[in-house]
Structures are given as structure tokens and as C-alpha cells.
Amino acid sequence: METAIAQFTYLPATKAERETFVQMCVDEVKSGVRNPLELEVMLKNLEETVNAIRKHPEVKELVFEEAEKYPEKKPSRLLVAQSQKQVAQAIITAIVMIAVTTI
After folding, report:
1. pLDDT value, residue 67
2. Could you write out the DSSP letters of every residue in 41-66?
3. What is the pLDDT of residues 78-94, one digit of tens each?
4. Residues in the chain where the model's pLDDT stays below 70
5. How far apart are CA 91 and CA 56, in angstroms?
6. Which of 55, 86, 90, 52 minimizes the C-alpha distance to 68?
7. DSSP 71
8. Most Cβ neighbours (<10 Å): which of 14, 60, 68, 94?
9. pLDDT value at position 2?
10. What is d(CA 73, CA 78) in angstroms, rounded to the nearest whole number?
């Protein structure tokens, strides 16, 4: 049984593969093999699917937790997310402290 994520293995994995794939798509549209509007619908659907997966809170948390295992390889985007999470936790802690001291 093939998993959902396995579907991504059919897409290009390297820059060179991506460039070849893009050119093949352009050639298919130019030659009339595919309708350009049909391609646009497919691309929009793929884009929205990828965005939905990336924005899913559980996926974001799992990616963050996995990245924590490799501190020497953290991409800057994850470092920003980590610092935002730390700031949010500090704000929540401060709010709780204020609430506790005023009760």
C-alpha cells in the first residue's frame, strides 16, 4: 500500500531534476499536449495542498521537534519560529505571573 507522502517521490528532488521537469511541462503546454488552463488548475491545487500541509499545526510541531535533534543544521526559518515560540512562551508566563500576583 502506497502512502500519501510517497506521492511526492514522483516529483523532482534536485535542482537539475526540477529544471528538467519545468521545461518538460512548458514543452507539453507549448506543443498542445496539455491545456495551459488545465495545468494552472493542477498547479494551484498542488500549491494549496503543500501550503495546507506546511501550515498544519501538528506538522509544524513535528518538524520543529525533529529539527531540535539537529541543532547544528537548523535552517534560519526554524530559528525564527523557535525564537517566536520562546517569545510567545515568555509573554504567556509574564501574563500568568501578573494574574497570579493580582489575585
Report:
1. 80
2. HHHHHHHHHHHHHHH-HHHHHHHHHH
3. 555 555 566 566 566 66
4. 73-103
5. 23
6. 86
7. G
8. 60
9. 81
10. 10
